[in-house]
Design brief:
The chain is an alpha+beta fold. It has 2 domains: 118 residues, hypothetical protein PF0899 fold; 89 residues, Tumour Suppressor Smad4, CATH 2.60.200.20. It contains 5 helices and 19 strands. Strands 10-9-19-18-15-16 form a 6-stranded antiparallel beta sheet, with no helix packed on it. α1 runs antiparallel to α5 and α3 packs across α5. The longest helix is centred in the middle third of the chain and has 18 residues. Keywords: Phosphoprotein. Pfam families: FHA, FhaA_N. This is DUF2662 domain-containing protein. It comes from Micromonospora musae.
């Protein structure tokens, strides 16, 4: 037989290009002339999936299902009219690629196209992660422990939660200035004003995905996710820091106090 597995990734790309031509109604060459080409983006997404594989119990291979594409301001403005449709086509092609590799994803493949202010024209950045709809687990890369404490348990039935025996022994939470309480769950919690954030705050000074809290049952680590206005703890700008009870976290105009019971 002439068609072997080595041809499959090519066929995904060919189908993608064909759909793109229909998407922009013959203006394909003109629209993408001088800007980053969507096929390059799909190639990079495939490499990201390959790089962030995690072997699960039962021998299944979990790969990221959420891909954030940062484009240069010029490329972003040129492709803006097609961004939603392009994201949909990228997601469909990535899902096909993942299916052909017999890999597993949690839920649907999601692609978001955003403006990356620090990128030169023609440059782009792909960020991949496992998005569960409730928890966001960073895609495992070199040095990332994909063992049970760090990686939530996954089962084919759609259950997703901390591994058995890893229930948090402490009640940790954030308290806002107006008295609202936000309990923290084991694993990762993304704070932001976008709909992909687990903890959404309606503050225009906060980025869509502003910061992430990682709780392993012992300590909570706060990481700034490259936010526009930065993240402050006790008045000091931080990139990543382990929190202590009573620490004051400031994001935009919102102040949250870190509290621990038990």
């Amino acid at each position: 037989m002439s068609s072997g597995p080595e041809e499959e990734p090519v066929s995904v790309l060919q189908r993608f290009e064909k759909r793109l031509e229909g998407l922009v109604e013959g203006a394909f060459a003109k629209v993408f002339k001088g800007v980053v080409h969507p096929v390059e983006i799909l190639n990079a997404m495939q490499r990201e999936a390959e790089a962030h594989k995690a072997i699960l119990a039962g021998g299944r291979t979990l790969v990221p299902n959420r891909y954030v594409i940062d484009l240069s301001p010029y490329d972003h403005s040129r492709l803006a009219p097609y961004a939603a449709a392009l994201a949909q086509e990228l997601a469909q092609s990535q899902a096909e690629f993942i299916g052909e590799q017999a890999w597993t994803v949690y839920g649907d493949v999601i692609v978001e196209i955003e403006r990356g202010d620090g990128l030169d024209t023609g440059m782009f950045r792909v960020t991949a992660e496992v998005y569960t709809g409730g928890d966001v687990a960073p895609a495992p890369g070199p040095g990332y422990d994909a063992g049970p404490p760090a990686y939530p348990a996954y089962d084919q039935g759609g259950g997703y939660g901390p591994p058995p025996g890893h229930g948090g022994g402490r009640n940790v939470r954030l308290v806002s200035g107006d008295g609202r309480t936000y309990p923290l769950q084991m694993g990762s919690t993304v704070i932001g004003r976008g709909d992909q954030a687990n903890l959404r705050l309606p503050d225009v000074g906060i980025s869509r995905r502003h910061a992430r809290l990682d709780f392993d049952g012992g300590q909570v680590v706060l990481t700034d996710l490259g936010s526009t206005n930065g993240t402050m703890v006790n008045g000091q700008r931080v990139s990543a820091v382990a929190l202590n009870p009573g620490d004051m976290i400031q994001l935009g105009t919102t102040t949250l106090t870190f509290r621990v019971d038990g």
